[in-house]
Design a protein that fits this description.
By secondary structure, the protein is an alpha/beta fold. It contains 5 helices and 6 strands, in the order H-E-E-H-E-H-H-E-H-E-E. The relative contact order is 0.32.
Length: 128
């Protein structure tokens, strides 16, 4: 049995397979998943698991170069925005552009988060 790391085998494999600049997304339970993009569904109930629970676990196991947030998060989910802006260098784009951007990520990890705009795209960094 895996002694340390992420127990979810799909997420563990996803992170192991990432190369520099590859992107993944962590999303709330309402984000539409584009056709052809792998969905790793963790949602159990509204709010469970939370976006931040999943984000912090992934962040502890992934080298992240940058993240992309929806610009609407700043006003529509200010508490989450205030936490994330302190975490990693980030850029913003409109929620509509973020949904278009999501068509090109390696996978979307769907949380049970039920607050608006709780979505982030993470670009993988390199360890050397």
């Amino acid at each position: 049995m895996y002694k340390t790391g992420i127990l979810n085998s799909d997420i563990s494999k996803l992170l192991s397979d990432l190369g520099h600049t590859d992107e993944i997304m962590i999303a709330d339970c309402g984000l539409p998943i584009p056709n052809g993009v792998k969905k790793i569904d963790l949602a159990l109930d509204f709010g469970k698991p939370s976006f931040l629970d999943v984000f912090h676990i992934v962040k502890s196991h992934m080298a992240i170069e940058k993240m992309t947030l929806a610009s609407e998060m700043k006003t529509e989910n200010e508490s989450l925005y205030n936490v994330l802006k302190e975490e990693i260098k980030f850029t913003t784009e409109s929620h509509e552009l973020l949904k278009q951007h999501s068509k090109h990520v390696k996978a979307i990890i769907r949380t049970g988060e039920a607050k608006p705009y709780a979505n982030v795209i993470l670009a993988s960094d390199v360890l050397f």
